[in-house]
Design a protein that fits this description.
Layout (H helix, E strand, L loop, with lengths): L7 H53 L2 H7 L7 E2 L2 E2 L4 E6 L6 E6 L2 E4 L2 H10 L5 E6 L2 E9 L5 E7 L1 H36 L1 H14 L24 H63 L3 H39 L7 E4 H12 L7 E5 L6 E4 L1 H17 L6 E9 L2 E8 L6 H4 L23 H11 L3 E7 L2 E9 L24
Parallel strand pairs: 10-12
Antiparallel strand pairs: 1-2, 3-4, 3-8, 4-5, 6-7, 7-8, 9-11, 12-13, 13-15, 14-15
């Protein structure tokens, strides 16, 4: 059987009020017991004094005649003491029947035989006892005179009962009022304390109602700052939710940027592939047309047709190679993202830098090339072919996007256990609008798609993927006349795949111009 859930506020109030009620009840019981014991002790002391007085009075008089002739009352005087209201006195002389009287406000009342028997039974084995009679409860004690007369003296407990009853009434009323006040203050305190949680729930509900599965999404809902005070326990919940919403908001923004980048990626890839495919289709149709014409033409026209066909096939081959390089670059990026494609072995990074600059110099004789590498080898574990591709891409990028006469410097140094490669040029610099996206796929420093300046935009993306695959970093700083690409590689790079020394490293692929 399922029970209805109870709110946290109700549970806290029930717990607080329950514990306080239990404490008040315990205090009331202890107080009443202590007060009742004190009152009983005082009554016992008074009874002891009256017992001596009545004993002396009985010894000095004829008790039976006194009790039956002129009954005691509140106006009577015993041995110089006024008789208190509620005094019980009973005597039994040897060989005579017992008699007794109770002093009341309106005179004395004689004890009947049943009450005398109850008194006798209660005091049979004790010197004092509490006896309940028809007129109330009495504390009674027994004593004897020198002539053998038994004297029973008692005092009414009505004042004790009245005092304890009044005490119980006061405690009950005070407890009830205190509990009502406690419930009110507890409800207000808990309600104020749980207000940040309600703000958290309201904020989470509003966020849950927003569409987060598509389109550009921005989560602006936050728990108010005054409800998210990290100095309180509940406030830390609100602060934690705000931190979570900030993280989710930034993640959604990153997701949107990735989606936009993917759309641009697909559009750029489609554009890059469309041009070679259109060229292949056009030259193929031209070749077929030329072959058909050659079948119906004379020898001279056939030779010209053969020449045109050969040219068309060469263009088809060139466009096929271009498309193949693009597809291979995309495949390389995909495999690098998966942590594949890198074959590590020990290599000399200084020798690799010399070879890369030597290969780049003939491609731009109108540029000034400088090399600054240490004389001793700089050894590390890495993929020589891929690192050569990184340097080739960076040098090709500097060559392509700088005018003639620009000085391009390739330097290598060791800084804090890290090999640092720098490709510097004193060209016009990089447009700040494209600097942040420079290492993204299909990012271009030149908006055109010309082979000389535009490129496919994959060169720096491939370089970044290869460097990160070696556990390194790549970044760029640029200003007019001062542009530097910096590659940092740890000298102790764990190999991803170790090959025997007798296997030569794979040849470096042709670097795609960016």
């Amino acid at each position: 059987m399922f029970t209805r859930p109870v709110s946290l506020q109700a549970r806290l109030m029930a717990a607080v009020i329950g514990f306080v009620s239990l404490i008040l009840v315990i205090v009331a019981i202890i107080t009443s017991a202590t007060l009742g014991r004190n009152l009983e002790d005082r009554l016992g002391e008074q009874l002891a004094g009256y017992s001596n007085t009545t004993k002396q009075w009985v010894a000095a008089s004829e008790p039976v005649a006194a009790l039956t002739g002129t009954p005691l009352s509140a106006e009577s005087v015993l041995i110089g003491q006024r008789v208190p209201v509620g005094l019980l006195l009973a005597v039994q002389q040897p060989n005579r029947a017992a008699t007794g009287v109770i002093v009341t406000t309106d005179g004395g009342r004689a004890l009947n035989s049943a009450e005398l028997r109850e008194l006798s039974r209660a005091l049979r084995d004790a010197d004092s006892a509490t006896v309940s009679l028809s007129s109330g409860s009495y504390l009674v004690t027994i004593s004897q005179t020198h002539d053998g007369t038994t004297v029973l003296t008692g005092l009414s407990r009505v004042d004790i009962q009245r005092t304890l009853g009044s005490l119980f009434t006061v405690i009950a009323l005070a407890t009830l009022g205190g509990l009502l006040l406690l419930a009110l203050t507890t409800a207000l305190t808990i309600s104020m304390g749980l207000r940040p949680l309600r703000a958290v729930a309201a904020t989470a509900t509003r966020v849950a109602g927003q569409p987060l599965d598509r389109g550009e999404v921005s989560i602006t809902e936050r728990v108010p700052e005054y409800e998210a005070d990290p100095r309180t326990e509940v406030g830390r919940v609100g602060a934690a939710l705000n931190t979570l919403l900030d993280h989710v908001d930034s993640s959604l923004a990153a997701r949107q940027r990735n989606e936009e980048r993917m759309r641009r990626f697909v559009a750029d890839a489609s554009h890059e592939l469309r041009t070679p495919l259109a060229s292949i289709r056009g030259y193929s149709e031209l070749s077929l047309k030329a072959i058909r014409q050659a079948e119906q033409a004379d020898a001279d026209q056939g030779a010209r047709t053969l020449e045109n066909t050969t040219s068309a096939l060469e263009r088809i081959q060139a466009q096929s190679l271009r498309m193949t390089r693009l597809v291979e670059d995309l495949l390389l990026l995909a495999r690098l993202d998966e942590g594949r494609e890198l074959v590590s072995r020990e290599l000399d990074l200084a020798q690799l830098a010399v070879e890369a600059l030597t290969d780049a110099q003939p491609t731009a004789a109108d540029h000034a090339w400088e090399l600054d590498v240490p004389e001793e080898p700089v050894m590390l574990l890495g993929d020589a072919g891929r690192l050569h591709q990184v340097l080739a891409n960076l040098l090709a990028n500097a060559r392509t996007h700088t005018p003639a006469g620009t000085t391009i410097t390739l330097s290598l140094a060791i800084e804090s256990g890290t090999a640092v490669l720098r490709v510097h040029d004193d060209g016009p610099g990089i447009d700040p609008q494209v600097r942040d996206e420079l290492f993204a796929r299909f990012a271009r420093g030149d908006a055109s798609r010309a082979r000389q300046t535009g490129g496919t935009g994959l060169g720096l993306a491939i370089a970044k993927a290869i460097v990160e695959g070696h556990g390194g970093t790549i970044d760029v700083t640029s200003a007019p006349g001062d542009t530097t690409f910096t590659v940092r590689l740890p000298l102790e790079t764990a190999p991803q795949q170790t090959v025997p020394e007798e296997f030569p490293p794979p040849p470096p692929p042709a670097p795609p111009a960016q």
